[in-house]
Amino acid sequence: MRTLQVALAERSYPIHIGQGLLDTFPLAEQVRGNQVMIITNETIAPLYLDKLQSQFSQIQCDTLVLPDGEKYKTLATLESIFDALLEKRHSRTTTLIALGGGVVGDMVGFAAACYQRGVDFIQVPTTLLAQVDSSVGGKTAVNHPRGKNMIGAFHQPRLVLIDTDVLETLPTREVAAGYAEVVKYGLIRDPEFYDWLETNNPRLLSRDSELMAEAIYRSCENKAQVVADDETEQGNRALLNLGHTFGHAMETATGYSEWLHGEAVAAGMVMAVSMSARLGWLDEGLESRLMALLESWGLPVAVPKGMTAAQFMDLMALDKKVHNGQLRLVLMKALGDAVVTADYPAAALQETLEAFCGV
Ligand SMILES: NC(=O)c1ccc[n+]([C@@H]2O[C@H](COP(=O)([O-])OP(=O)(O)OC[C@H]3O[C@@H](n4cnc5c(N)ncnc54)[C@H](O)[C@@H]3O)[C@@H](O)[C@H]2O)c1
Ligand SMILES: O=C(O)C(=O)C[C@@H](O)[C@H](O)[C@H](O)COP(=O)(O)O
Ligand SMILES: [Zn+2]
User: Fold this and answer.
1) Binding-site annotation: residue ranges
2) Is 0.95 topped by the overall pTM?
3) Got the DSSP string for 118-140?
4) Which of 49, 237, 257, 287 would disulfide-bridge 45, Cβ 3.0–4.6 Å?
5) Could you report the per-residue pLDDT of 276-293, keeping only the tens digit for each?
6) Pair 135, 8 in one domain
7) Are residues 197 and 143 both part of a single domain?
8) Residue 202 main-chain phi, psi, to 5 deg
C-alpha cells in the first residue's frame, strides 16, 4: 500500500492506494461515530457492497443503492439520500461512505456537506476516473439541466481508499474515460509524466496492473498538490478544468446521457490545445501528439454530431469560470504549462468552435 497526504491543515486526509484494500484495510477503525451509511449504485452493489459492509458488523451500518448513471446526478437523487438517512435516524456523528465512481462520489460528498450542516464522508472510488480525480479534492455537486455541477459545495472526505483490484470489472470504455483525466495532469503541470504515459502507452492500454497503479499514484500526487495549494479554486486549481469548459457544454447538450464525462474532457482538451495553437501560444505538434494518444484509447477528439458554435457559446456562458461576464478558459503555453485566462481575442474562440463544429 502507498499513501499520499492531501495537506489541508485540520482538513488534511490520506489517500491509500493498493491492491486488495477492500479486503485488508481496516476501514471501520477510521470511523469516528457509531453509524455509517454506505451509498453505492445498482451496478456496483452486487460486485463490492457485501465486502465493504462486512467490515462494519460492530456498529449500525445501513446501505443505500442508487440508480446508475450521470442522468441521476440530480437534486432528486440527493433527496432520496436525505430520506434514507432520516428514516434510519442518522445523527450528526454519522459517516457516509461513497462506494462507486464519480457520480456516486460527487453526490454522496454533497449529501455529506448538507446533512445536518455537514457530516464525515469517506471515498471508496471504483472507477479509474474516480481513483485519479473525483475522489480527491472535495468538489461535490449535482447537475442542473442547464449546466454541469451547478449545485454543490466544497467538502473534503476524511479518507480516500483506492483498491486498484476493482478496476478488473470496469468496462473498457470507462477505463478510457478515466484515462483522459490522467492525461490532463501531464498536459497542465507534469510534462515528464506525459512523456511517461506516451512511452508506456502499449502496456497501459493492456491494463498492466503495476503501471496502472503508478499512473493512479502520480495522478493523485498531482491532484493532491494542486488542491493543497488552492482548496476552493481561487487561482491555479482552475487548471484542473483543462478541456472542461468545452466538455461540460458537450455533456449538457447531450442530456448527460450520451457522452461520458471523460470522453467530453478528451474532446474538450483537444479543443483547448487547438485554440492555444491558433493563438500562436503553442506549437502545433502537441495537438497531433495528444490526438494520437487519446485516439489510441478510443476517446473522441471531435464534438458531438450536430452541435453548433452558437450552442457552445450559449452553454459556456454559464461556466463557473465566468468572472464579471468574461469567460476564462484554461489554455496551454507549452506541454506542462497551462494558464487560466480571459485574455484571448474573441475571434480565436469563435474560429476554434467553427473549426470543430462547422459554421
Ligand atoms: N469531484 C471532482 O473533482 C470530479 C472530478 C472528475 C469527475 N467528476 C465527476 O465524476 C463523474 C464521472 O465519474 P465516472 O467516470 O466514475 O462515472 P460513473 O460514476 O458514472 O461510473 C461509470 C460507470 O462504471 C460503473 N462502475 C463503477 N465502478 C465499477 C467497477 N469497479 N466495475 C464495474 N462497473 C463499475 C458505474 O456503475 C457506471 O455505470 C461526473 O459526474 C463528473 O462530473 C468529479
Ligand atoms: O477538482 C477539480 O478542481 C476539477 O476541476 C476536476 C475536474 O476533473 C472535475 O470534472 C470537476 O468536477 C469539474 O469541476 P467544475 O467546478 O468545473 O464543475
Ligand atoms: Zn473532470
Assistant:
1) 68-73, 102-106, 126-127, 139, 148, 181, 244, 261
2) yes
3) --EEEEEE-SHHIIIIITSS-EE
4) 49
5) 999 999 988 999 999 999
6) yes
7) no
8) -60, -40
Grid-cell match 478515466, residue found: 178
- For residues 205 and 151, membership in a common domain is answered with no
φ, ψ of residue 101 in degrees (nearest 5): -85, -165
Contact in structure between 241 and 321 (CB atoms under 8 Å) = yes
Question: Domain boundary at 169, 184, 210, which?
Answer: 169
Separation in Å, CA 98 to CA 63, 68, 110, 345: 10, 13, 11, 43
Share of the chain above pLDDT 90, in %: 99
Q: Is 46 exposed, middle or buried (0-12, 13-18, 19+ CB in 10 A)?
A: exposed
Task: Show which of 169, 184, 200 is a domain's final residue.
Answer: 169
Measured in angstroms, how far is the CA atom of residue 150 from the centroid of ligand 3?
Answer: 14
Split at pLDDT 50, 70, 90, the class of 359 is: low
**Is the CB of residue 247 below 6 angstroms from any atom belonging to ligand 2?**
no
Give the three-class secondary structure for 345. Answer: coil
Domain limits for position 332: 172-357
Task: Specify whether 248 is located in the same domain as 296.
Answer: yes
Only one residue has cell 484571448, namely: 344
* Catalytic option among 41, 143, 222, 241: 241
Give dist(CA 195, CA 338) in Å, integer: 16
Does the annotation mark 32 as catalytic?
Answer: no
Q: What digits encode the pLDDT tens for the residues 122-176?
A: 999 999 999 999 999 999 999 999 999 999 999 999 999 999 999 999 999 999 9
Tell whether 153 and 31 lie within a shared domain: yes
Tell me whether 0.95 is exceeded by the ipTM: yes
